[in-house]
Amino acid sequence: MNRNSERGYAGPNLGGNVTDTVRDFGKEIVAPVGFVANDLDFYTSTRDSFALFDFEPNRLLPRVTLYFDDLLGYPYTTATGEWAAINEFNATHEKRQIGQVYGLNHCLGRAYRFAPWNELFFVLHVFDHPGYNALEEKRSPDLSLRA
């Protein structure tokens, strides 16, 4: 049992060579990918991790939430590192695009509104997914009082 399953998380925490890890993960995946936290720092490892986004559409949700941790501050620019890998991916993939979630800070309350991490969320749009154009349901939690 790994640390993730002990904490109740469903997804694996993968390690090793990115190219090999993504390929092996592709063989074992049982549920569609819906979230990816990318902590790879460098252009080549980030670029190689994007092989995950080339999986068949049914292996991904229509919109996959992404988090990149190395995009803000010096020396991170759009010409290097994770930014460069994102830009290259978008330039070479017509049916799948990575877009930044702008304005997330306006949807958050209290101190989270000013946290730097809200600028680090993106969405992979899987335009060729059969469910991409389906209506998204926004459900409110049941907050009714019960005896």
Can you tell me about this structure?
The protein is an alpha+beta fold. The protein has one domain. The chain has four helices and four strands; from the N terminus they run H-H-E-H-E-H-E-E. A four-stranded mixed beta sheet has the order 1-2-4-3, covered by helices on one side. Strand 1, helix 3 and strand 2 form a beta-alpha-beta unit. The mean pLDDT is 87.
List keywords for this structure.
globular, alpha+beta, 4 strands, single chain, 147 residues, 18% strand, 4 helices
> Helix amount, in percent?
10-25%
What is the general shape?
globular
Biggest sheet: strands side by side, in what order? 1-2-4-3
Report the strand count. Answer: 4
How would a textbook summarize the main sheet? 4 strands, mixed
Number of helices: 4
Report the end-to-end length measured between terminal Cα atoms.
39 Å
Strand percent estimate:
15-25%
- Average pLDDT works out at 87
What are the low-pLDDT stretches, counting only 5+ consecutive residues below 50?
none
Estimated radius of gyration: 17 Å
Order of helices and strands: HHEHEHEE
Number of domains: 1
- Report the structural category: alpha+beta
